[in-house]
Design a protein that fits this description.
Structural class: alpha/beta
Bound molecules: phosphoenolpyruvate, cobalt (II) ion
CATH architecture: Alpha-Beta Barrel
Strand content: 5-15%
CATH class: Alpha Beta
Oligomer: single chain
CATH topology: TIM Barrel
Length: about 450
């Protein structure tokens, strides 16, 4: 049995992070309404509950043992404009469809976690952006400022924290309703938009897989004698980068009859690659919350630092508490991943390995468009799967930036998006996302890999 989680984290309080250097925080004009806004936020009802959070942690512990698989995905950044029914429904739909494909291939239950209902703050490599000699604060997500290049839009505004909280609430409310009401699209894989499949060298495999999903669903419906309601009553969890620490702090609370402090703004917050400094404010804040947490890790993380992060963030070695979301890029994954896996395994650390094949594979075309190549994304995913398996560990999840729409932001895939196509429907303000077809294809290829490894 894993040890009982510690409830009283030494030297920690929801504000203890304030004594540490906090990277990537907005600078508000003085005077500002931040204190009054945070007071309001701290009073408003939570977005999620501690029961749901504990349920997710339990499921992530199962994934750490290889009994489940984590699918985490959504936009790089949500924006207030896209808080509308069709955008939310199509994101939910693609994640559900991908998860059915992965269940079919992996023969294990899938944990579905959206990058939504709170993914409104972004780290930026430059604090300022300069255009034609004019410098303004960088756009840091709709929770902080606006993308338009004017001083008014770029000045951080505390009232946006409340707008973000409200939109997160609206989003999660709609998602809960859709799920409770049953999401009919799932029952008919033959209606999924899979026309691109014909252009793939794996067309026959894909078709077989989708047909067998249809057969399994129909079989279960026959057994149940009615619509397989259980299929619709799936769990769905939310996640976002816990970047803006005052916002996260305002939603961090104690709950009746349960020890510890829960960040009730989301089920599964993660620390970004740029804010994971061991002595920084983010690690300090995260070490004290009871949620399951993720840490993005990139090529600069040494095995010694990885162990130190694990000791600080999961001192009880509780399975399900800590997920490493690794994002090395296709060129570096084979060099960077093995020493980390070996170090953690040799110290008996329970960690869930979740591959983010997006953030190490961002490139800029000669026409200055930020993109990612399908082939690099797939390579990093397959290499991670193989490396972890060869070293006695396992790939426990995948973290993907996607949209349910057919945008043209990433290059490649069977649907054949080329570099020249990028300008056709490029909508993201931040990172390029896989479109519906590309995301489904990644799920099909990953499912195929999982199925092949079961033989
Ligand atoms: C992100 O997930 O959008 C992001 C900024 O990732 P990372 O912290 O891995 O760079
Ligand atoms: Co991103």
């Amino acid at each position: 049995m894993p040890p009982e989680p510690k409830t009283d984290v030494a030297g920690w309080s929801p504000t203890s992070w304030q004594a540490k250097p906090a990277a990537q925080q907005p600078v508000y004009p003085v005077p500002n309404d931040l204190p009054a806004t945070l007071q309001q936020l701290a009073k408003l009802p939570p977005l999620v509950t501690s029961w749901e959070i504990e349920n997710l942690k339990h499921q992530l512990a199962e994934a750490t043992r290889g009994e489940r698989f984590l699918l985490q995905g959504g936009d790089c950044s949500e924006n207030f404009e896209d808080c509308e029914s069709s955008a939310i429904a199509s994101k939910l739909k693609i994640l559900l469809q991908m998860s059915l494909v992965l269940v079919q291939g992996g023969k294990k239950r899938v944990i579905r976690v959206g990058r939504f209902a709170g993914q409104y703050a972004k780290p930026r490599s430059e604090a300022a952006e300069t255009r034609n000699g004019v410098s303004l604060p960088s756009y840091r997500g709709d929770m902080i400022n606006r993308p338009g290049f004017t001083l008014a839009e770029r000045t951080p505004d505390p009232s946006l924290l409340l707008r973000a909280y409200e939109r997160s609430g609206l989003t999660i409310n709609f998602i809960r309703s859709l799920i409770d009401g049953g999401f009919a699209d799932l029952h008919h894989p033959e209606y999924w938009e899979l026309g691109f499949v014909d252009n793939s060298p794996h067309a026959a495999d894909y078709t077989r897989m989708v047909e067998s999903i249809g057969e399994s669903l129909r079989f279960m419906e026959t057994l149940a004698g009615a619509v397989a309601a259980d299929i619709n009553r799936v769990d769905f969890f939310t996640s976002h980068e816990g970047l803006h620490l005052y916002y996260e702090q305002a939603q961090t609370r104690q709950v009746p009859r349960r020890p510890g402090w829960y960040n009730l703004s989301t089920h599964f917050p993660w620390i970004g690659e740029r804010t994971r400094a061991l002595n920084g404010a983010h690690v300090e804040f995260f070490r004290g919350i009871a949620n399951p947490i993720g840490v993005k890790i990139g090529p600069t993380l040494t095995p010694a630092d990885a162990l130190a992060l694990v000791e600080t963030l999961n001192p009880q070695n509780e399975p399900g508490r800590l997920t490493f979301i690794h994002r090395f890029g296709a060129r570096q994954v084979e060099k960077c991943l093995p020493p980390l896996v070996d170090a953690l395994r040799s110290h008996g650390k329970h960690i869930l390995w979740c591959c983010d094949p997006m953030h190490g594979n961002t490139e800029t075309t000669k026409n200055h468009i930020k993109t990612r190549r399908f082939d690099n994304i797939l390579f990093e995913l397959e290499a991670s799967y193989r490396i972890l398996k060869d070293r006695g560990a396992h790939l426990g999840g995948v973290h993907i930036e996607l949209t349910g729409d057919n945008v043209t932001e990433c290059i490649g895939g069977a649907s054949g998006v080329t570099e020249a196509d990028l300008t056709r429907d490029y909508r993201t303000f931040l990172d390029p996302r896989l479109n519906y077809e590309q995301a489904m294809e990644i799920a099909l290829l990953l499912a195929r890999l999982m199925a092949q490894n079961q033989k």
